[in-house]
Each structure stands twice: as C-alpha cells, then as structure tokens.
Design brief:
This is 3-dehydroquinate synthase. Catalyzes the conversion of 3-deoxy-D-arabino-heptulosonate 7-phosphate (DAHP) to dehydroquinate (DHQ). GO terms for molecular function: 3-dehydroquinate synthase activity; metal ion binding; nucleotide binding. With 351 residues, the chain is α/β, with parallel strands linked by helices. The chain folds into 2 domains: 163 residues, Rossmann fold (3-Layer(aba) Sandwich); 182 residues, Dehydroquinate synthase-like, alpha domain. Helices cover 49% and strands 17% of the residues. The protein has 14 helices and 11 strands. α6 packs parallel to α7 and α6 runs parallel beside α9. It is globular. 48% of the residues are buried.
Length: 351
C-alpha cells in the first residue's frame, strides 16, 4: 500500500512502515532511542512492535493511559525520565499508542531541550486517521482540551493495521467518527461508502482518511484557513467531552463519541444557517445514532456545555467560530451561530 507524503515526512503503512523505520534508524546516529508506551500498549502492542521492527530501544518510558492523564504533570514525569536516562538533543522518542500518547509524546519531544526528533506509531483507529497526522501536539489544561501545545511534525508516522485487533469495539468505533467526518467535510463519495460498511478498519479506508487529512494539512499547516474544516463537530464536541470529563456524575466519553454528538448538533446548525438539505441532515443523524448511543443532556448539562465554548481554540475577538456544512463534502469556516440555535440543536439531537 502506497505511502502518503506530506511536506516534511511520510506516513508509511504495513510492510513499508517496517522497512522505513529500520532504514531510517540505520542511517541515523541517535545517541539514545526512547520508546513511550502506556500500560495497554505495553501489554498488547509492545510485543508486536518488538517482533516486527527489530530496532534496538535504549529505554522504555511508561505513562498512564486515558485523557485524564494528558496533562503537564505527566509531561514533567516524562521530561524527568528523559533527563535521568541521559536523553540529549540527539535523542529520538518513538510514541507507541493512541491519540493521548501521540499528542503528549509529540509535545514532550518538541519541548525537551528545545526539541528532539519523534516518530508516531499510532495503535488506535482514532490515532491512525487523525491524532498522529498533521503535527498537532499538546496536552489538556484541566478539563479543557488541547489548550497547551505546539504544531511540530514527526519524522514519520507508521501505520500497522494489525494493532486494531488489540482494541475493544468501543475504541474502534470512536475512530470511525473521525473517518466519517473526513467524508462529511471533503468527500461525499467516501462518506457514502463508509457509512454503509462495517469494515471501517480496512487498510484502504484508513489510507483514504489519512490522505484526506494530509491533503488539507498540506494546504494550511498552521491552521490559518482551510485546515479549520477538520474541526467540524469539534466546537460542541470538545465542550461535551470536557464537560463529561470533569463531571463525576457523567460517564466519560471517548473523543469520537463526543465528536459524533457534536457533528449531529453542528449538522443541525448547518441546515439552519448554511442550507444543508434536510435529507442530508437526517442521513447524518441516522448514521451516527446507528453506531453511537444517544446521550441524555438536561438543561443544566447544556448550560454548562455552552459555557465551555468560550475556550474553543478557533475563537477570535470574543467570537465563537463554527465549521458548518453547505452540503455533504462541502464545509465552510468561521460561522457565527446565534445562541438560540444552539439550544434548538440540542433539542433536535434529543428528538
């Protein structure tokens, strides 16, 4: 399967990924090679990595899994471990894990001694098609998603679809939400094929989603314009994810689960403000509710979620900016939304 080329790195899949890493390490002169894992990837993915790759690792660093640990406290522990194990500016950090780990690992590498090289090896579907691609690194500030970070590209991203076999179904479905988003914002044909398949972990689908995201990022690496369309569903979705993360009485949602809700809500806003056809709106809602359980929000929940919108990273000059759809496959950026429509969007989701 062909590699996907960005401006400064490539995404290699399957057998090409194995060869690419081995060749890269052989021609490089890193002083130390560190591998970062969490308790899950250490148990389920590290044996596969060691068997397939055959690269000498000097030190394995382990963090705790989960969004609750994607914070500066964890970064300090990793920076400290790098220092204590003689990491220097010629070291390499390989991140083996899901989106939390690749986000945090990329940020740690980008800031340790003003920046060391890193490679992402995503092990979840979400990380393969989204989190590990595009150079966004960072951590959360309390419950607020990705408030601290930098955009810095890895040396390469390596995709091994067999890691998907280690995931529970809920984790695979979470990644499916981001794949559906790629179709909604850029490719109606892909949306139609993907929403009618049960094999969204297929390598060809993974490659297609990577290609869509990569093409958008190459046009706008620092998110000044078109790259914002990748945030469809994320303005409300991130607020929902943050609210559920900080509320003891709420079940914590995986990223894709929260974004799926956000996409239904923002599809409703798209219908009201940008002319997304009613049939398309219903198609979007039906597709997501087929795969993602509906979550009940009462008035207090909705009020708390809407208050979190002011922390969205797309905001400017006090305005909350949404990404909406004119049609399936056609997204527009920087849309202002009246407050009353936000409440109507939640009412529509509840119907």
């Amino acid at each position: 399967m062909d590699s996907v080329a960005s401006h400064s790195y490539e995404v290699h899949l399957e057998a090409l990924a194995q060869a690419a890493l081995q060749q890269y390490i052989a021609k490089s002169s890193y002083s130390k090679i560190f591998l970062m894992v969490d308790e899950n990837t250490k148990k389920y993915c590290l044996p596969i990595f060691e068997e397939k790759i055959g690269v000498q690792i000097d030190q394995i660093l382990e963090i705790q899994s989960g969004e609750a640990n994607k914070n500066i406290t964890t970064c300090v522990k990793v920076w400290d471990a790098l220092s204590k194990n003689d990491g220097d500016r010629k070291s390499l950090l390989i991140n083996l894990g899901g989106g939390v780990l690749t986000d945090l690992g990329g940020f740690v590498a980008s800031t340790f001694q003003r920046g060391i090289d890193f490679i992402n090896i995503p092990t979840t579907l979400l990380a393969m098609v989204d989190a590990s691609i595009g150079g966004k690194t960072g951590v959360d500030l309390g419950p607020l998603k990705n408030q601290i970070g930098v955009i810095n590209q890895p040396k390469m991203v390596l995709i091994f679809p067999e890691f998907l076999k280690t995931l529970e179904p809920r984790q695979r479905t979470s990644g499916y939400a981001e794949m559906l988003k790629h179709g909604l914002i850029r490719d109606a044909v892909y949306w139609n094929s993907l929403r009618n398949t049960n094999d969204y972990g297929d390598a060809a689908c993974v490659q297609k989603s990577i290609s869509i995201k990569n093409d958008i990022v190459m046009q706008d690496p620092t998110e000044k314009g078109v790259r914002k369309i990748l945030n469809f569903g994320h303005t409300l979705g991130h607020a929902i994810e943050s609210y559920c993360l900080e509320s003891p009485q709420r079940k914590t949602l995986l990223h894709g689960e929260a974004i799926a809700i956000g996409m239904i809500l923002e599809a409703y806003l798209s219908h009201e403000l940008k002319g997304l056809p009613r049939l398309s709106l219903e198609e979007i809602k039906d597709t997501f509710l087929k795969h993602f359980e509906r979550v009940d929000f009462d008035g207090h929940d909705i009020d708390s979620i809407l208050k979190l919108l002011r922390y969205d990273k797309k905001n400017s000059h006090g305005n909350i900016n949404f990404v909406l759809l004119q049609a399936i496959g056609e997204a527009v950026i920087d849309v202002k939304v009246p407050d009353n429509l936000l409440l109507k969007a939640f009412a529509y989701y509840k119907e």
